[in-house]
Amino acid sequence: MRLCVFCGSSDGAAPLYREGAQALGRHLARSGVGLVYGGGKVGLMGAVADAALEAGGEVIGVMPRPLVEKEIGHAGLTTLHVVGSMHERKAMMADLADGFVALPGGLGTFEELFEVWTWAQLGYHPKPVSLLNVGGFYDGLLAFLDHVVGQGFVREPHRAMLICAQDPAELLTRIRAYEPPRVVKWVQANER
Ligand code: AMP
């Protein structure tokens, strides 16, 4: 099994974010789960990859050529795929992984998380999508998502697809137990 981790190219404002990324990397490696990630050395990306490598795990990076210098391509990975564009990166990361985890991060992290979640909602893939809510980082987003359900823009079964845990062990247990919902995004003509 391999999991794709989306995370910040920054460290964040407190040491707990780096520690959370390291804890996830270690736990994946010790559980025999390969890591697929953006391939960089910077920020939480580097932290999760280094921790997984130190614990003897498989780490696969996927990086668009224009970012190899900016995000500093990691030279010590099991494999580093250098691709032509951001779209190729995201498609390859999604293909290589059996599920997705978002750590704290910024705009790139959110974009990646919501893309794989919306693909899952449309039934394009059956893979679990999750958040490691380090230090309650995502509490505000989770509350907003509940608001969105309340306002009728997301169906409850689609909201419930997003697995969320504070601890890597609990997160991995729930990822392994995940079953995709049977509710389709688009209503049938006779439901209207
Ligand atoms: P960030 O969370 O903004 O620090 O970015 C985390 C990772 O997301 C980086 O490796 C970015 O290259 C990547 N990323 C993926 N898609 C995008 C996008 N549309 N815009 C910006 N960054 C992105």
Number of helices: 7
Strand order of the biggest β-sheet: 4-3-2-1-5-6-7
Order of helices and strands: EHEHEEHEHEHHEH
Total number of strands? 7
Distance between the termini: 40 Å
Supply the helix-strand structural class. Answer: alpha/beta
Overall description:
The protein has 7 helices and 7 strands. With 192 residues, it is α/β, with parallel strands linked by helices. The protein has a 7-stranded parallel beta sheet, with helices on both faces. Strand 1 (2-6), helix 1 and strand 2 (34-37) form a beta-alpha-beta unit. It has helices at residues 15-30, 43-54, 86-96, 107-121, 139-150, 156-159, 168-176; strands spanning 2-6, 34-37, 59-64, 79-83, 100-102, 129-132, 162-165. It has a single domain (2-176), classed as Rossmann fold. Helix 1 (15-30) packs parallel to helix 2. Helix content is 41%, strand content 16%. Bound molecules: adenosine monophosphate (AMP).
Would you spell out the secondary-structure blueprint of this structure?
Layout: E1 2-6, H1 15-30, E2 34-37, H2 43-54, E3 59-64, E4 79-83, H3 86-96, E5 100-102, H4 107-121, E6 129-132, H5 139-150, H6 156-159, E7 162-165, H7 168-176
Parallel strand pairs: 1-2, 1-5, 2-3, 3-4, 5-6, 6-7
The site of adenosine monophosphate has 15 residues, from helix 4.
